Please model this.
Amino acid sequence: MSMGKRLGAEFFGTFWLVFGGCGSAIFAAAYPDLGIGFAGVALAFGLTVVTMAYAVGHISGGHFNPAVTLGLCAGGRFPAKDVVPYWIAQVIGGLVAGAVLYLIASGKPGFEAVAGFASNGYGDHSPSAVWENGSLVKTGYSLQACIIAEFVLTAFFLIVINGTTHKLAPTGFAPLAIGLTLTLIHLISIPITNTSVNPARSTAVAVFQGTWAIQQLWMFWVIPLIGGAVGGLIYRHLLDSRES
Model:
């Protein structure tokens, strides 16, 4: 498959992940009386991965996430020379989705992206922080707690991805397992960081939130990338079948 088609698949896959996952958080999570809540947002993120993995996974591998690309590279499943091009396509796809979400959300009177815009955060901007009338009443999960959560969850995400896409694994079920894993990850960590495990997803909305989300974005690049690489290495050296 040509690199152009592979990058296009990553662009559209990441667009759909951000549009569907973050869109559900922005528009539907707290909709009066009929809000889908944390569980609904978690499921939405999982469904975006399942649907696009089946749709374009055969073209690009269905990464849609810089941490997944790095983790697959660390696991010996993806060439290092293609990592940066994939990252660029993923970030651009996410940013375009963020722009579309912004255009839709800004069509409602009173919308302010600075209120959050499904951005990831820690400390004073962890989803568990309590603000009243612009004043912080109770801080959320600490930076240390958020680092641990993002690292562990991203590492296990890559262990699942490497395992379910192994040639000895049952064929055809990897997208379901990966999507359900992402759903589980969100069920665990939405209250902690609003769940990143994906630097492209974090960047896509932080740019439009524009203030604290940009300042805290470094963590949602550094830790998922480290966690992804560690997860790939764990699978490669401790779990991978020597028959592969």
Notes: Strands lie at 130-132, 135-138. The two ends are 23 Å apart (CA to CA).
